[in-house]
Amino acid sequence: MRKLLSLLAILFFSCKGSQTSSEKLSIEKGNVDKVQHSIFQELIDTSNLIGSILIYDLQNDVYHSNNFDWAEKGHLPASTFKITNTLIGLETGVIANDSMVFEWDGQDRWSSAWETDLLLRDAFHLSCVSCYQEVARDIGVERMKDYTSKFNYGNIVLDETSIDNFWLVGSSRISQMEQISFLKRLYQSKLPISERTDQIMKNLMVIKNNNHYKLSGKTGLSNENDHYNGWFVGFLERDEQTLFFATNIEPKDQQIRSGFIIKRKEITILALNSLGYF
Fold first, then answer.
1. Which segments within the chain are labelled E, that is strand?
2. What integer best gives the mean pLDDT of the chain?
3. Are 237 and 264 in contact (CB under 8 A)?
4. 208 — phi, psi (to 5°)?
5. How many whole angstroms separate alpha carbon 102 and alpha carbon 117?
6. Cβ atoms of 234 and 186 closer than 8 Å
């Protein structure tokens, strides 16, 4: 943590408002520019992690990352799938509106924060697994397959036995590149959904909104066979700029997971700051 705080101080004072040339390792010309950044790798290394930070600058059509190979790899979507699950729930009527309440059944849950009645927004940001398992079961296999296909959302594998956990365990996969493609279509209102669903979802995703920026997103965490993988995906709106991000990380040592959960957001914010966007 001390190393990460030191790096934060360096980034804040030396990189704020501009991108330093020393961060840029290579540029690959293709359909879009891809710029590799050593500072992103430093953020990951000093946090005892492995993985990739991927940021897409919409206005300049440029991808920024430390590891584009990792960004192409598929991983379980974990709770980032709550974005898609909510969209489908709203479109099918399983989720009536943004005032919907998930009633607690009195059973013990993994998190004490879930052991109460939760409004949709709280269930979303607190990542209430049992709440969204209920939504998935009510949507059903066929409708879930139909919508994830129409959304072109990763590679989703599910059946009757996995309808309420396929995003947490099993063969479903989505890459960081695919996450950003999906989020970009959501942001630009290009998904096959109603305007009502579109607006509810965008309002629901907001984490922080002030005079300087609006941050929207969702975290995710999977633990399959004691192997942890974490996500933070979303977009940052600032002035006339929009930055999409998809961070996917794992503990360097799966036996040492101290602070892993909070680092998903922490290093993403630092990466955005290093580019002068925060």
1. 24-28, 33-37, 49-57, 62-65, 101-102, 118-119, 206-209, 214-224, 227-238, 241-251
2. 89
3. no
4. -150, 135
5. 6
6. no
pLDDT digits (tens, 9 = 90+) for 155-183: 999 999 999 999 999 999 999 999 999 99
Name the residue type at position 86: T
Choosing from 47, 79, 130, 222, the catalytic residue is: 79
Q: Do domains 1-75+175-278 and 76-174 have the same CATH topology?
A: yes
Tell me the one-letter amino acid at 19: Q
Note whether 50 and 278 are within 8 A (CB): no
Which CATH number applies to 76-174?
3.40.710.10
Which residue type is seen at 136? A
Sheet strands side by side (includes 24-28): 24-28, 33-37, 62-65, 49-57, 241-251, 227-238, 214-224, 206-209
Q: Is residue 79 flagged as an active site residue?
A: yes
Say which CATH superfamily domain 1-75+175-278 falls into. DD-peptidase/beta-lactamase superfamily (3.40.710.10)
Q: Which two tokens stand for residue 226?
A: 């004691």
